[in-house]
Design goal:
Strand order of the largest sheet: 1-2
Radius of gyration: 27 Å
Largest sheet: 2 strands, parallel
Helix content: 55-70%
Order of helices and strands: HEHHHHE
Length: 155
Amino acid sequence: MKKLLLSVALFAGAMLALTGCGGTDTVETIDDRPVIHFDAGSIISSARDHQIKMLTLSSVPTDVVAISGAVKELQGMQADNDTYLAELEGLRHEDSSADEFKDLVVEYLEAENAYIDQTIEALYGGGSSRPSRFSMESLYSRINTNVSDFRYEPK
């Protein structure tokens, strides 16, 4: 009898606890980060891939690199950047910090395209010196650091 009473009490307690969960309101967390209307994560991912490819290319001596293949790869990277730049052109945000971030991303993409142009010129010119990556990499770092400060919502 005690076992039955204990089982019923445990069952009733469990049921009360479960029905109590359904009766409480859920609290929706509010994400108050500024909204951006472009997928910065994809742009950062693409930029990282581009940097890895460019570092690989710059570490191989030019006489070993198939110049036409390298140029084709670099031009493909530029095409990716041009697609992103076209998407960002004229895009406006409600928050000024989101527009500033967008401008930083545009500045990075333009810097990467300039670096690619200089690299292509160096490859065709046969020069052993490569253009400086410092400004491009510092822009990338700033974007990568700030991307989590924003929330992506497509327009």
